[in-house]
Design goal:
9 helices, single chain, 5-stranded mixed beta sheet, TrhO, 293 residues, 4-stranded parallel beta sheet, alpha/beta
Length: 293
């Protein structure tokens, strides 16, 4: 069996969040769907997986409730369940920036279709900017892109204010996984005086889906926030896994490193855990291996 996976977002004013949460959770559980949905006064953001028929009903519900269209969706598939359960959570923001300057309902950058992206970033006058966190950029990125080296999206503001100058880099092309982060990042940069801000429409996922591998400027794979860990060209699943101890994405080389212990530690977190934490992780891994849950 394979599962249909939908990643989606839309910025729109929402109220009655508790009622919306209860209704969405009941709808998804009745159809045995799994995933995570975030709702906030500014909109909805989520990734949900399930059997094809149930997912068609879910997409119709998203359209009815939030006005989502195909432009708001990134569709892919998974060979196994990419989520363990269904969660619907209320948050202050659907993507956390904590700055009113990053308001995508007021303005955003110019959305550039995947088919036009290569021509844009070939311009030497364009600063190509990755808006993702460092554990995501480790998995893959566009050739020549600037990695801000941030650990969380809220750090993006400081990076822009301390590192970039709109007078020297007036033309910026940015990208992220599915497009949502760029909505706020582009609004923030426009507010800070950057003259031309462009963003990859539909994010990396749309680019990998629509641009042939032989024409692609993408190097590596794309980190995703579910059990598949990373996707490649054509949104194919890859051999990346995640460290249970810290959640870091792991390549085949990482898993061959002496610091790697399955279910316990990896090169990213080795030496950071107490003896008690390591013992607990080993015990849990032994139970899971034995099928005890």
């Amino acid at each position: 069996m394979s599962f249909t996976v939908a990643a989606f977002y839309r910025f729109l004013p929402l109220d009655d969040l508790q009622e919306t949460r209860a209704a969405l959770l009941a709808f998804c559980r009745e159809r045995a769907l799994r995933g995570t949905i975030l709702i906030a006064p500014e909109g909805v953001n989520g990734t949900v997986a399930g059997e094809a028929g149930a997912m068609q009903e879910f997409l119709a519900e998203l359209s009815r409730r939030f006005g989502l269209s195909e432009a708001n969706l990134r569709m892919s598939s998974a060979a196994e369940w990419p989520f363990a359960r269904m969660k619907v959570r209320i948050r202050p923001e659907i993507i956390t920036l904590r700055d009113e300057a990053g308001d995508p309902l007021a303005k955003t950058g110019v959305h550039v279709a995947p088919q036009a992206w290569n021509a844009l970033i070939a311009d030497p006058g364009v600063l190509l900017l990755d808006t993702r966190n460092r554990y995501e950029t480790k998995v893959g990125g566009f050739a020549g892109a600037v990695d801000p080296g941030i650990d969380q999206f809220t750090d993006f503001k400081r990076y822009v204010e301390e590192t970039l100058d709109p007078a020297r880099t007036p033309k910026v092309a940015m990208f992220c996984t599915g497009g949502i982060r760029c909505e706020k990042a582009s609004a923030f940069m426009l507010e800070k005086g950057f003259a031309e801000v462009y963003q990859l429409k539909g994010g990396i996922l749309s680019y990998l889906e629509q641009v042939p591998a032989e024409e692609s400027r993408w190097q590596g794979d794309c980190y995703v926030f579910d059990g598949r860990v990373a996707l490649g060209h054509g949104l194919a699943e890859t051999d990346w896994t995640a460290c249970f101890g810290c959640g870091a994405p792991l390549s085949a080389e990482d898993r061959a490193a002496p610091e790697f212990e399955e279910g316990v530690t990896c090169p990213a977190c080795a030496g950071t855990k107490s003896d008690d934490e390591i013992a607990a992780l080993r015990e849990r891994h032994e139970r899971m291996t034995a099928g005890e849950g």
